[in-house]
Amino acid sequence: MDAQVELQVKAASMNTSYGDLVQKQRKFFMTGASRPIEFRKEALLKLKNAIIAKEAEIMKVLAADLGKPKLEAYSTEISYVVGEITHMIKNLNKLAKPKRVWTPSVLWPSSSYIYSEPFGSTLIIAPWNYPFQLALSPLVGAVAAGNTVILKPSEMTPETQKFILKLIAEVFAPEHVACIGGGIPESEALLNEKFDFIFFTGSTRVGKIVMQKAAAHLTPVCLELGGKSPCIVAQDIELQTAARRIIWGKFMNASQTCVAPDYVYVHKNIANQFIESLKKTITEFYGPEPIKSDSLARIVGAGHFSRLSAFIKADQLICGGQTDAAKLKIAPTLLKNVSWSDPVMKEEIFGPILPIFVYENIDEALTKIASEPKPLSFYLFTKNKDLQDHVLSTMPFGGACVNDCIIHLANPNLPFGGIGESGMGRYHGNDSFEVFSHKKSVLKKWFALDATMRYPPYTDFKMKLIRFFVG
Fold first, then answer.
1. Predicted local distance difference test score (pLDDT) of residue 451
2. Which residues of the chain have pLDDT under 50?
């Protein structure tokens, strides 16, 4: 199997066209082999069992690529995917069953249904920050919906890419699910092919390219992107609890998380106390020298390390700022006196640097946030229910937590997705099935009681009848 996978990786790096593979999968889909519910369940169960059996190996490759601590690797990658599969197998019969909907009386006697149909040939392009979860989680939805899939993991995490190549080759037949290695040329070649649906997770910049490529074939897309997710801290919070939750959410995976708090607005009356609580929590979590902590992941590569290091200015440092180029590690860093014109506020940070702004008037803070591109996530810390209701009902965002960070992703009953520049489409739980399914509208009419008033010749009497029934 290892030799076969190596040949597949080599072939992927040499190919400039994947038309044959796409056609092979399209022919397989046309046979109807991927449609039976039991076939889908068996495929998902086989994937689940393989993941469970290879847990130690998954942790090893994630540590090699990102320095992920075992607890983070298990909780945010392995157990998450296993949970998605378990949820999907449990609910698949109900999800795939045609849903009867109400039929207006004017159409009686008839019944109406919505059928969930697989799109057909689908492409999934995954990112590097959660390279296992964000490749396999959408795959679960695609397979559950009855599609064929070509999966492209990120080249930025090469050990994880190799592992996923091997895993997919062991679990699936290539005409059902295939995995392509390589980097940008392979992704570009795949995007030149005609698919029935494309699912992309990554940056807004690349998401625009994916959408342009898809437009050439009028292919629908789901784009899971990112942006600068704000965090507002009101003065009525429980200080230390809020600090722990924000530091955990920000610096998990070295803050290489699309939904990590990107910056904080804190009320001026508690700003100094809040900052001291943040500093205390960093030491509590990562020790007196956080950059040496085994609980802190590393930056994915030298390019990202250099970009992040340039954001750290000595005159803005509250704490942190230490960097280790050899180990690609950056200590958890807090910044003050940051301006929206500074480079650190011009793009999603995607690293362990947290700018802190102080506000006095909440409406001014909300107005500034609203003037920026719509964020993927929004975090609000307050006990004030009126403030909660005001923010949740007026501010645009993909998803939110009140008095916590990131954990909304852990609920399979909450759809995950962005808005505006942070993305389009949603998945997780049942929505992973829905996003990979086309909804067919079907009305079934009886032969009995055929209403002649709709047929020519049109008369005044028929017009009166139409008005009576239709309104």
1. 79
2. 1, 5, 7, 9, 11-16
What is the C-alpha to C-alpha distance for residues 425 and 417, in angstroms, rounded to an integer?
Answer: 6
Cβ-based neighbour number of residue 263 at 10 Å: 21
Residue 362 domain-assigned? yes
Can the peptide bond before residue 457 be classed as cis, meaning omega within 30 degrees of 0?
Answer: yes
| CA geometry: angle 255, 134, 247, nearest 5 deg | 20
Q: What is the DSSP letter of 204?
A: H
Euclidean distance between CA atoms 64 and 109, whole angstroms: 64
Indicate the pairing of strand 148-152 with strand 121-125: parallel
Task: Find the helix packing angle between 37-53 and 133-144, rounded to 10°.
Answer: 160
Beta bridge partner(s), residue 356: 264
The model's pTM is: 0.94
The rounded distance, in Å, linking the Cα atoms of 62 and 157 is 8
Let me know: does 143 contact 149? Beta carbons within 8 Å: yes
Residue closest to 351 by CA, chosen among 155, 129, 184: 129
Active site residues: 224, 258
Residues 244 and 308 in one domain: yes
Distance (Å, whole) CA 167 – CA 152? 13
Residues with Cβ within 8 Å of residue 76, at least 6 apart in sequence: 130, 133, 252, 253
Residue-level pLDDT at 164: 98
Q: Write down the pLDDT at residue 2.
A: 53
Q: Same domain, yes or no, for 181 and 248?
A: no
User: Could you give the C-alpha distances from 331 to 63, 125, 260, in angstroms and in order?
Assistant: 18, 30, 16
Q: What is the CATH number of the domain that holds 407?
A: 3.40.309.10
Give the range of the structural domain holding residue 79, as residue numbers without chain letter: 2-225+424-440
Integer Cα distance of 198 and 38 in angstroms: 25
Residue 392 lies in a domain: yes
Assess whether 275 and 189 both reside in one domain. Answer: no
Residue 402 makes CB contacts below 8 A (sequence gap 6+) with: 379, 380, 381, 382, 388, 392
Q: The CATH number of the domain where 32 resides is what?
A: 3.40.605.10
**pLDDT score, position 1:** 45
Tokens of 230: 């704000």
For position 322, what pLDDT does the model report? 98
Q: Helix, strand, coil: what percent of the chain each, to 5?
A: 50, 15, 35
* 167 shares a domain with 36: yes
Instruction: Determine, yes or no, domain membership for 456.
Output: no
pLDDT at 471: 67
Side chain identity at residue 404, one-letter code = D
**Contact indicator for 323, 331 with CB cutoff of 8 Å:** yes
Residues 430 and 303 reside in one and the same domain:
no
- Domain match, 212 and 279 both: no
Domain count across the chain? 2
Q: Do 271 and 205 fall within a single domain?
A: no
